[in-house]
Amino acid sequence: xxxxxxxxxxxxxxxxxxQGYYKNDTNNHExxxxxxxxxxPSKNGYAxxxxxxxxxxxxxxxxxxxxxxxxxxxxxxxxxxFLEYLRxxxxxxxxxxxxxxxxxxxxxxxxxxKAPIFEAQFVETALLNIINHQSLIATKAARVVKAAxxxxxxxFGLRRAQGPDAGIYGARAAIIGGCAGTxxxxxxxxxxxxxxxxxxxxxxxxxxxxxxxxxxxxKLFPEKCILLVDTYDTLESGVPNAIKVFDEMKKEGLPMxxxxxxxxxxxxxxxxxxxxxxxxxxGYKDAIISAxxxxxxxxxxxxxxxxxxxxxxxxxxxxxxSSDCPSFGGIYKLAAExxxxxxxxxxxKISDNPEKVTNPGVKKVVRVYDKATKKVTADIIALEHEQxxxxxxxxxxxxxxxxxxxxxxANSYTLRELLVPVFKAGQKVYESPNTMSIKAYAKEELDTLxxxxxxxxxxxxxxxxxxxxxxxxxxxxxxxxxxx
Amino acid sequence: xxxxxxxxxxxxxxxxxxQGYYKNDTNNHExxxxxxxxxxPSKNGYAxxxxxxxxxxxxxxxxxxxxxxxxxxxxxxxxxxFLEYLRxxxxxxxxxxxxxxxxxxxxxxxxxxKAPIFEAQFVETALLNIINHQSLIATKAARVVKAAxxxxxxxFGLRRAQGPDAGIYGARAAIIGGCAGTxxxxxxxxxxxxxxxxxxxxxxxxxxxxxxxxxxxxKLFPEKCILLVDTYDTLESGVPNAIKVFDEMKKEGLPMxxxxxxxxxxxxxxxxxxxxxxxxxxGYKDAIISAxxxxxxxxxxxxxxxxxxxxxxxxxxxxxxSSDCPSFGGIYKLAAExxxxxxxxxxxKISDNPEKVTNPGVKKVVRVYDKATKKVTADIIALEHEQxxxxxxxxxxxxxxxxxxxxxxANSYTLRELLVPVFKAGQKVYESPNTMSIKAYAKEELDTLxxxxxxxxxxxxxxxxxxxxxxxxxxxxxxxxxxx
Lengths: 484, 484
Prior knowledge:
Two copies of one chain form a homodimer.
Chain A: H1 12-23, E1 30-37, E2 47-48, H2 52-60, H3 66-74, H4 80-87, E3 94-97, E4 103-104, E5 111-116, H5 117-122, H6 124-147, E6 153-155, H7 164-176, E7 181-182, H8 185-191, H9 201-205, H10 210-220, E8 225-228, H11 234-251, E9 259-263, H12 268-281, E10 288-291, H13 297-305, E11 312-315, H14 317-320, E12 330-338, E13 344-346, E14 363-370, E15 376-383, E16 394-398, E17 401-408, E18 413-417, E19 420-424, E20 427-428, H15 435-447, E21 464-466, H16 468-483
Parallel strand pairs in A: 6-7, 6-11, 8-9, 9-10, 10-11, 15-21
Antiparallel strand pairs in A: 1-5, 1-12, 2-4, 3-5, 3-19, 12-13, 14-15, 14-18, 16-17, 19-20
């Protein structure tokens, strides 16, 4: 696929500030920004980060072309020398990121950008747009897949997605979050992921009789034959006609490895149980019953509780828009300035709201696993240079309640640093895995969480603690601020 | 801008059905599909339709290239002759549409596609994606702009939009819905709409002192100088420092035509009143007070009720995602088949849910205005060939309550057909107006509604009635269905 130039996909104020840095000759001052978020979407217990591949593409394709410069000039805001300077713009900094598909928690830097402020500031908006969107949908999909208890979930939301990209990259993110496939053909082509779909009501309506529509479909696609049975009357017409056609298929000796029905309206619990009984009685115990009707994770969980006999779920609008929580609150905040002599000046953003105070300094995220169970015990946000030793006792203090302590015995835990280098001095040093590998990795990631953290409602909250050094730095900076 | 090939932006089932039509030799059967919706988003009293320009681009750029055919072949679902046939695919039908920016109501065809079923079926998903997205955001923006009571509203949501397109086209739709500008530079470039923005907290934090940051900014952008005053302490530091800088600007004799402050946190009602008083006391009665902090139409209306002294509103996440209702329920349903002899066979989709029964036949939408006030009285969904005469009395029966009647005297009303030709025999016959013209048109459109229909909560419901002939057709078809 050809890469899009999204250079002007930014907020105007990034460019006005850049002119400011340029004019004040501070444009080359090195800074570190963190991209992180403050709370999980949908009151979930975690998020699945996603979008890094597209973020990398964006960075690599940054380029102010003639049309861009001409357009900016037309705004009567920018000076000629600044616009000329923009022509030579490229990203020269370092980016560390948590790989896509990783389970992440609030306050953890998902990306850490170290670059001249001119560049680090500029990339803020598009990075947030890309990471926010895909992390949102990957997380929502993980919830839906969880509710389906092992049944495959298909992403069907393109027609209600917020524009083409929301459909394309939303489907990618949904696959990362655990969906088995998508109806979106372009996503299938771009990311080599399974595509899925059979027919709509209009197919049935284009024939005089429902059974003719089913017969014609079965003849064409005997190996993937899911018949939509609710165009006229699900139990009186649709299911009996489907069974007749399955009988005909069997008589012809077709393989019938993937066949069944789809319900798209009505009481899915009732209809699926009745349909199951009818299919079983006719000898089609392996016929799939799929459903797709304004579903979300709560409805699926409820249908499961009611004993609905659905084995394949098509989820559209509510997943592709994350309808209960349609935005992921990723933000991008200055964490440090780096002086020429190598000195690091940590930066903190103060707020009246204590939850909005940022963590200063160049940081990393260290995940702590229980050695025996391989489950996550906690995450530590630490300063970059800090070292931890698995052969020593580790004491963790809860971030907002330092009197709460977890003491881990030496050799009872393992550690893993989550941020990996993606760009060094503007050069890409990371290869994005293909989407299906990311999906497999995300599944492994979810296996590292105890079930309590994955509950759809009221999940257990993962401990994300500050290292002693980071905590001390933050306290000192807050104390100095108070004294001013 | 280069046009994107979105040919594979579709649901797989469109292609499996197309192979079915092709194999059954029904692919050239002419059909009519309606794109319409069943209820207004956000419980609003109307919607603003948008996205037609991009829908037209999509249709014009449809083209299965070698890579597309190769990909489809790799799915092992499609036969070679069908794939070869796809290579020659182009849209050859007619499309009628309601122009962008028009006020529309549930059940009205926003697009009417007449084409061979092979083509009409294929374009469903992308048309819905595009029209659903932009109509959603245009409608949401109209609500936000309404709440601002004449103050300009700026679209600031790119970083939280659901991917790049949601930001780009969402901002376009927000402008159509009434926003004065957007922070999104790419949207500004692509659609020649005003872009806006000054600086962020990081600008202030990159200086040792807040006042230095303000001074540097004012020096660079004296003609558009909105200073963000909440980085440290709005009333103790931000506003006093802004006033000092305004004093310096005045002393230097700068024009000061567009200057002021921005609040981005805290109690906006309280802070804006205090800031207003401080600015006024310093002689800056025309200084703008802008605000941007998780706003939506309800919060803005509430701030207005509290007497907040905000005169410019920046609205991000909640508008760009339409957070309370993040999808627009546009659907695409078969309305008729056209036989070779010219006979029209109306089609109806039956549902257990009476609200989901479709309106059969080839239809048009006739808007009825009161001649004296020029306000909309009602809309009529009628059959295409029906004629109405303004010189005759007009009797309208409420759609779901035929006993409710509106009688309009001859010459007391005027009529307007909303659907206009966009494609004829595959040729584009419509020029999209530029975005700012659509915005101006949408404003005129909103002026044709009484205030009661524009209330944010519990609006009056516009009467959308069926013509007698359409009503009779529908009843007859339902009656025939019942007898089967």
